[in-house]
Amino acid sequence: MYDPTMVPLACRIPETIRRALDERRRTSGETIDAIVEAALVEHLQAGWSTLFQVSTAGALVEGVHEGAVSVHFLKQHGDLGLGTFTNLDGEMVVVDGRCYQVRSDGSVREVDDAERSPYAVLTRFNPEPPVELGAFAGVAELHNRLNALRTTDNLFYAYQIDGLFEFVRTRAVPKVEEGTRLLAAAARQPEFDFHNVRGTLVGFWSPGYVKILTVPGYHFHFLTEDRKAGGHLLDCRARSLTARVEREANLRVALPETPSFLKADLSHDGSAELDQAEKQKGDRKNEPARP
């Protein structure tokens, strides 16, 4: 059947690759077109519904937060996501292809492409039509609203949630020395409260079976509409928000080759410590610094 979205491609390839294509076609039953398309999507990361992750959450737990990749590199793999910066210096929020850093004083800046990250998760966001979320009184109720939109517990989901929030509580981890465990860094984190503020939640839901790689369950970062405040989400409530959701069927993990990562002992399960650090309350609450 003719498909107007497909275009012809002609190229020269070595005879060895041609023989490999023929063998793959013979053994799998796939067409040459399908094999080449799948290979190009994988190599170029051009397909939708793929999460791209740098490093592992377990490495952060162990204190491995040396900058591994540049923001420029991250932007090649997604336009929506979250993460952190070298030495856990604040919270990363990527929305509409722009990367922001929420610092521990509550301020926000858009970072340049040379900034580096030890851990980030991004996707090229191509969501389903927007869905209106009903009123909820806390983050647990928000999770229940989002649970109703999921059709499986075994794939990943990406979210962008926009609107007027009655209340938001966030935190931002301060910069620490390399080797500081995540739980120790989170114990010093300041918290910020916002009231009646428009903004955006960016985040992901991940299955429990990947708990040694990334944060299982929901993980959100918040950014105000004016891009002047935000942080890692601890709690929120709202009357009505608009959610855009994409189911993600692929996960690509790029492991760092930094000295700290290569030398770290990542053999034990740090998921309990990760969960504690993600939910841990800070040692004080601040009004956010807003220019």
From TrEMBL:
<dbReference type="GO" id="GO:0047605">
    <property type="term" value="F:acetolactate decarboxylase activity"/>
</dbReference>
<comment type="similarity">
    <text>Belongs to the alpha-acetolactate decarboxylase family.</text>
</comment>
<feature type="region of interest" description="Disordered">
    <location>
        <begin position="263"/>
        <end position="291"/>
    </location>
</feature>
<protein>
    <recommendedName>
        <fullName>Alpha-acetolactate decarboxylase</fullName>
        <ecNumber>4.1.1.5</ecNumber>
    </recommendedName>
</protein>
<feature type="compositionally biased region" description="Basic and acidic residues">
    <location>
        <begin position="265"/>
        <end position="291"/>
    </location>
</feature>
<keyword id="KW-0210">Decarboxylase</keyword>
<comment type="pathway">
    <text>Polyol metabolism; (R,R)-butane-2,3-diol biosynthesis; (R,R)-butane-2,3-diol from pyruvate: step 2/3.</text>
</comment>
<dbReference type="Pfam" id="PF03306">
    <property type="entry name" value="AAL_decarboxy"/>
</dbReference>
<dbReference type="GO" id="GO:0045151">
    <property type="term" value="P:acetoin biosynthetic process"/>
</dbReference>
<keyword id="KW-0005">Acetoin biosynthesis</keyword>
<keyword id="KW-0456">Lyase</keyword>
<dbReference type="InterPro" id="IPR005128">
    <property type="entry name" value="Acetolactate_a_deCO2ase"/>
</dbReference>
